[in-house]
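Changelog note: in this version the structure field was regenerated for every chain. One regenerated record is shown below for reference.
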Amino acid sequence: MASQKVNANARKKEPVLVIVQLSGGNDFMNTVIPFTEGIYYDSRPLVAIPENRVLPISDKLAFHPSAAPFRGLFDGGKMAIVQGIGYENSSRSHFRAMDIWHTCEPDRIATEGWLAKVVRQLDPQGLNPLTAVSFGRGLPRALAAPGVTATSVGDLDNYGLMSPIEKKEERSQDLDYFKRMYTPAIGTGMVMDYLAQTGQGVIKGADILAVAPGRYKSSVEYASNPIAKALRDVARVHTSGLGARIFYTNHGGYDHHAQEVPTHARLLSELSQALSDFMADLREHNAAEEVAVLVFTEFGRRIKDNGSGTDHGSGGGAFILGENVKGGLYSEYPSLAPRDWLYGEDMRHTIDFRGIYSTLLEQWMGMPSTEIVGGRFEQIRPFIKTPAA
């Protein structure tokens, strides 16, 4: 790679992966709705979306009416819907379920995040602290591993305006957040070792990021909510030529045990519009061909509503977006027949999430996946072409 020209238009563009985490457990059944199934309406007298309001994408499935931009992406062939994603013996604990998705270890507590292993392969000497960038407070477990630096910044605009003292205080808060989140799972020793090894690199990376806003201009007007701001920050850093290959963002609030109807509608509106704007922004900058986006959540919700919302379940869904994505439905929608319900109340998973990670790593990023995800799993074929080819 060193022999290639520096000119960004002349060199081969390296594949980039953007992760969007929906924290709390997105209700897949109310996102991609089985609107012809009577049992859907019988099981959800409160939260079911009326058939005359859904946005059909096939003769059996439809998007939530607040996710109209998703249907635009799907109809344009830029969105792959992964149905029934999950794993055996799905955990209903937020912390444990997210930990499993972050480490690919359903049967034990692991010390390395799956994306941290990716960073180690992409930058084995640790020369670029911006190989992976997370937007949001604290560092996601997926990007944490001893000896691996991933840069985390809360807000690109605010960070650029902070004084050195304020930056130090924010970094201290982030590190404290990391310690409180992960010490119960992996122990004080590993957490402190990680912070000692990577702390300075993280600060250096955040300081380098301050140049990105000044290099960016766009006609796309993002909304002012957190996921829109985070994806705009991803676009600004990606188009600034700083060498980032992995981006991580978070959209919170999906744990809707109560008041699901208004809350879920707002979240899906924010998410779908932000992703649509993000894709348009990348296209405007001729920076979309090399980007793939994975949207995931830690678990789905139960088939029956609880009178106000839905409780933790399994058999969720994920989305892959990109200019080179072959849009469509992948895997199988879980059976809604009561005889097939997991635990007598959940949708079963129909494809292992580690197979989707493997798909992205091997087909998009061009790297072996077995050691990263802990085995070999069924993959899908969601890409028309890949920059890794």
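Spot check on this record: The radius of gyration is 20 Å. Residues 164-209 form the longest helix (46 residues).
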